[in-house]
Structure formats: structure tokens, C-alpha cells
Design a protein that fits this description.
The complex is a heterodimer. Chain A is mainly α. In chain A, about 80% of the residues lie in helices and about 0% in strands. By secondary structure, chain B is an alpha+beta fold. Chain B has 9 helices and 22 strands. Classes of the chains: A mainly alpha, B alpha+beta.
Amino acid sequence: MMTAARVFAKQGLNLWGTAAGFVALLLGLPVLVVAGYLFEPSGEVWQHLLDTTLKDYVINSLLLMIGVACGVLLLGVSTAWLTSMCEFPGRGVFEWALLLPMAIPAYIIAYTYTGLFDYAGPFQSWLRELLGPGYGDYWFPEIRSLGGAVLMLTLVLYPYVYLLARAAFLNQSLCVLDVSRTLGNGAWRSFFQVALPMARPAIVAGLSLALMETLADYGTVQYFGVSTFTTGIFRTWYGLDNAAAAAQLSAVLLLFVFTLVVLEKASRRQARYHHTTQRHQGLDRFRLTRGQAWGAWLFCGATLMLGFLLPFGQLLHWALTTADEQLDGRFLTLIMNSLMLAGSASLLALLLALFFGYSRRLQGGWMVAAAVRVASMGYAIPGTVIAIGVMIPFAALDNQLDAWMRAQFGWSSGLLLSGTLAALLFAYLVRFLAVSLQTVEAGLSKIRPSMDEVARSLGSGPREILGRVHIPMLKGSLLTALLLVFVDVLKELPATLILRPFNFNTLSVRAYELASDERLADAAYASLSIVAVGILPVILLSRSITRSRHAKST
Amino acid sequence: MPNQLEVNNVSVSYAGRAVVEGVSFALQRGEIASLLGPSGCGKTSLLRAIAGFEPVSAGEIHLHGVRVSQPGHTRAPEKRRVGMVFQDFALYPHLNIRDNVAFGLRGLKAWNRRERVSRLLELVGLKGYESQYPHQLSGGQQQRVALIRALAPKPEILLLDEPFSGLDVELRGQLAQEIRTILKQEQVTAILVTHDQQEAFALADRIGVVGEGRLRQWDTGYTLYHHPRDRFVADFIGDGELVPGQVQGDGWIDSPLGRVKAYDAVGHVAGQPVQILIRPDDLCCDQHSELQLEILERVFQGADYLYSLALPEGGRVDCRVRSQTPLEVGERMGVRLNVTEVVVFPQSTDLWEADEPARPSPGLEAVI
């Protein structure tokens, strides 16, 4: 849109750029506040942390990341390879069903598995009945442990790797794999020598996303009693009541995240250059032998079973047995609260995303580009860190305002920002705007500038172009953007825990509270509601997968 | 009756740098013109200025006698009644073919609108595609839809921006002919922007060659080919080489290829060194000729062989010969000039530097 840009430039007023820069700065504030604590002189509490628990946080977080990395690579890459490059019965179903675990937040699968495999759970009870030993007579792996947390996170995070690896395999398939096969390499050799190295950037990108989620996780590690950064931040914030030390811990966590972001960005850039062809003719999948096909089916089936069917079934079972006591007015309030929060956050995020998207389209320039980058920084930042970053400046502002009001009018304004939904909504925007923005920008990029210009040459003014071209063409993307943020907000736990107003509960907070009270079955309704809504974007994703498959086969 | 389009001394600038400078031409109603030039020469900027997407930094544009562009004032594209066909067609993916074509039809009764759409679809042989969506159509069909969508509101002028570049090569020539027939039938005034001379020849009545932001020559295709006004045009249109020569009296030129008559000898004094343009078809093979030249390269082109020959005093010249008994590279070939008049350029000109690096021989380009 050179034209519009030049018209604005002529007025000598970089209106869009200035506005976008201002909003972006506001959204970047929490991260900047936290990052600032990196340079703050360390206090006594910090020294205490350093001497005692910090080492644990670092080691546990690292172990968790290493474990999850191995797990998601193993599950994600192998299932992606099997469903994209091999032919076996049920492949078409697995192709989309393997995404389903994405719908379950890690803390919910953790509650469910604890219920299933605990000493008192159905599995161990069944074992005891079968074998007849008493307590302590047999060894059973403890689910509430670091290893358990690794397993839980792996089971719900592998779809990130699966998705990106699958796309990479499909893109490279025709040109390079066929060459490899004509050069006499078999399926295994082709995989390790050609497909895997070429898909590496995509796989690394998926891996870094999964690890960002791992670092952000609070619910699982807290429930399993594993001391990591997020639980440490909570403990310092609430237990030690020390904001500065919590912020400093957050800042160290930010360093970890930053490494991952750099890794992800770098590999995505590489991935773009790795596409060697745009032609996707119907690809010739490897035909598996009968035994291999069974193996493939079992592997994919087990992944799906453990990642989705089992926990989902258990939640359903609990929900049915607790229906009478749980389905009451309080549950309705929970639903209303969550819908209201998620609805308004996704709507606000959409409006902001449209604002940034159109700024970029109409104005362009480095200022808007930088603003967009700052505004979408939050997607990598753990909710805990954002909550701390929101709380500190908001509380300071509230205190200032309150003191001023009291001095001037003798009347206390109380907590205007930090104790209200405003803080929570703001934190959600910081964290999830990137999701909305990405979707909106993808939609906008489909409306090529020539489409605007055709409409103008056919006599349409700006308003008509918006109504007849942009809105109809963007409709799908806007709905998707709304849905994605909605679901993310619904699942979000740590930021909601820290920032929610007193006595304000959401589905995720309620599930957390009930599970912490060892009332796992009672938590099922809240958990199940989150999972049920979470399935919607997964359906969208899998639909786009099948659609692209049909497009390729025609 | 005023000209349908008048472009008077128009310049277009980006950030103070002129990409189009002092261009003037006019089109009668129903005339089809082409702006032809290499990429980045400013032809698209000129087209966009006519459409109203770019302001002019100097000069004026008149459409049907109405001034629509002058410095400081640009009538908006939506108020100009220009039709535009883009390189990427820019069909609306959310609208079916009928609604795409009807997009610019306003103020018509529903029945009239349907009538107009189906008449246009019939015109381009797409009847029955009304409820299809753009992605279901082939490239050539999409191109036709883009064309009639632009024609539907009966624009004052139709602007086509590289409309064939997204299509298969075989399809281009055929479509260009088809579109010319339709435009003539509908008496549409049109401008085609292209870098492909064959397209321009096939479609346009008049062709403006644009180079480095300036209109080099405004003529028919025939004149551009046979009587290019400067080296830029000579170089851009058709193949050929510049061969040194010397002016004799009476408009004759002495050259290594023999004595030949100059097309326009005005301004050349006897004894002056000049350069003459020799096209591959200006030379013919004659083994009895005294002039025997060494063959440097040979390219098979189907009906012809294109030979590249060394001139005795350096430089080369191309010669196209029916492909029968080929001569080998390194052999000598007898040639003779087979042209009544040649175009003459002074030794050095300010329009196109003489020491411009030589283009690879056109035959080679065809092979690569």
C-alpha cells in the first residue's frame, strides 16, 4: 500500500506509527519491568535464595527441559514420520487425532494421571487385587515426581513437534526423498540421511515451542512437588512476600526463555530456505509390511491413548460420578466468569491485532514493524513472569494514586488496577496478543494490495472496500483468532492465580484448588469444560490438515 | 472531439527521485496502446499514475477531456472510471464468478446486471461458470474473468498491467489475439504494460517504448522495428548488432558489409564515422559473395539457423539462414546485405552509451 503510505507521509504525521509504538510499549512494560530486575542490586532474600534453593530451581528446570525435549522429539518426530510418509491402516485418523492431546492443559493431565495411578487409584488397586500384596510389598513408579512431570508434559506437548515436523516432511517429500530413493537408499537411510536433517529446523522450532510451554508450566510441577523456577517465583512472592526477589527469579527465567526464542527464530528462518519445491504431487508413501503396519498402528495408538483417550475417559468417568454435587449454581458462576474473561480478552486481543495489522498494512515502516515485534513478545513469556511484571508497576501506580487521593481529598481510591479484572485482562493481552496477531496478519496477507486497487478502479471507496472485500475475506481468520485466544485464556493458570480479584474464580483456578485439596474427582467438571472447549481449535487445525490433503490430491 | 486520454509532460517521483520523466502521448477512442520496456523502466508507475494510484509530480493527465491528475491534485481512482487488470488478476476468492464480474456494476436493476454479466461471460466463452469460484478456474479463464470484470462498468479506459506474465507461454499469444478482438469489438480504449514485445505487437495499435523513465519512441510496431529512433529502442526491439560505418555523399554509408543507403541521412556529413543497425534478416547467405566471414557460433532455431559472424575489423554480426545444409563453426560463410535502407546512429550518442556492455548473442539466450 504504497499509495496510502505516501498520502500519510505527505501530511508529515506518522499517526499509525506513533500510536502503534505507544500501545506496543504499554504491552511490553511487564517484560521490561522484570528484565530491569536483572540489573537491580540483589537484596538479602536474593542472597538467601542463591545459597539455598536457586540451585534446585535451575537443576530441576534443566532436567525437566531435557526430559521433555527427549520425550517430545521421540513421540513427535516418529508419529509425524509414520503418518506423513508411511501407509498403514488408520493412518488417516491418526493424522488428525494425534493433535488431540493439545486440548488438555498439562496440569489437568497431571491431576488425572495422579488419580489413575496413585496408590489408591484404580490401577494400583487392580494390581493389588490381581497379585494380592499389601502396602509397600511391591514397587510402583511414583507418578508425583520429576519423571512424572516429564511424562505429563511430554504427552501433551509433543503435538508441537508433530505438527511442524509433519509439515516439513510433506513439503520436502517429493523432490528430495525420491532422489534419495533413486540413489539406492531405503526407507530408513532416506529418513536419517535426508528427511531428518532437512526437517531439522522445523523440528527445532517445534521443540522450542514445547520447551517454552515447559518453562511456563506451573500447575504440573507445583502439584508434583517439583521445585522449578515457576514454583520458586510463587513461593518467593507469597511465602517470603518479597516482590523484588520474585522479580529477580523471573528475570533469570526470562534468560532461559530468551535463549529458546532465539533458537526458535533462527530455526524458523532456516526452515524457510529449506523448502526446495512448491510442487506437491500425490506422494508415494512407503508401504509397510504387515508386521510393520501393526507396529506403526500400536505406536500411534498408544501415544493417542496415553495423551488423550485415557485422561479424557477418566475425566468423563469422574464427571458422571460427581454430577449431582458439582453441577450447581457455583459451577454456573465459574462458567460465566470464565466465559466473560476469555470472551473479553479474546475480543480485546482481536481489536488490538486488527489495529496492529492495519497499521502495518497502511503505514509500514520500521516503527510499526518494531512495535509489532514488541507487542507480540509475550507469547514466549511464562504467565507467572507476566503476572509479576504486571503486578509490580500496577501496584506502585495504585499506591501513588491512593496516596495522592488521600492527601488531596481525604478519600482512598483503593486498588484501582492491581486488584481488579483490568490487571488480569491486561496480562492476558500481553501473553496472548501474538496468537491473535499472527492469525489476523495471515488473513490480511491474503488480501493482496491489488485487490484493494481493483475495487477502487471499479468505483469503491474505502468504506465499501472494507465491507465488500476485507470483512468477508477476513471473517474466517477473525473467528479463528477469537477462538485461539479464548481457549488459551481458559487454560491459563498461573497468571490468573496471581492476578485475579479476591474471591473471583475461573474454571482453571477451581480445578487447581480442588486438585490441591486432593478432591481430584470433584475437579473433573471444571477440567472437562476446559478440555471440551480446547478441542475446538484442534478440530480447526485438523480440518486445515485434511483440507490441504484434499487440495493436494486433486 | 477530445482525445480519450491525454498525457502531457507527466513525471512521477518517489521520494524526490523521478521514475517517469516528461512523458507525453495521446490516445483516440478505441485505440489500443502498449507501454513496452524492461522491468524497472517506469512503465508501471506511469500506468498507475493514469489509474490514479500515484500522484504526478509534473504535467497533467486528461481523461475524456477532464483533467484528472496534476501536481497537488489527484482524482481518486474510484472516481475516474478506469478499468484495471492486474498481473495477479486479483479475483476475489470469496465471490463466485458472477459476483466478481458484477462487482463494479452499480445503479443497475438486478435484471440488467444479470443480463450484462451473462453477455460478458458469453463474450469470453465462460457461460455456465457463473457459480464457480476463482480457484476452480484455469489461469487463462481467470484472466478472462479479470478482463470482463474491468470491462463491466464500461470504463473510459482499460489498463492492463502485465496481464499475461502469470500464464503459460503458449497461452499468451493466443490470449493476446483474443483480447484484441474483444477490445476492438467493444471499442475499448486500452493501454497494455508489458516487457514482452511479441505481446505488444500482437495487441497494440501503437507502442510506446519506455527506457529509464522516458518515452523513447511512440510508434507502430513496424516503425519501431525498422526505424528505431535511438539505440535504446534498436537494442530493445528485435535482435541486431551495431556495425561501424562511414558516411559518404548522397546518403550512402560505407561499412565492412558493403555500401548501403541510409534511411535518414539528414544531419550526417560526409566522412563522419557512424554506426548502422544490422538485423539478422538484413544479411543473406550467398556463397558466391566476395564477403566471406568466419562463423563464431551457430544456434538451431527450428526453421532457421542463427549464425554469429566475425567482422574483419572486430565486432560481430548475426545472420539468419533457412536451416538446410548447415555450415560448421570456424568455417567461412559468404554473405551479402539484403536491405534497402539501414538505420544510422552517430558514433556516440547521449541517449544510449556506445560502450554499453554487449548483450549476449540473442541466439545464446534462446538456447539457455
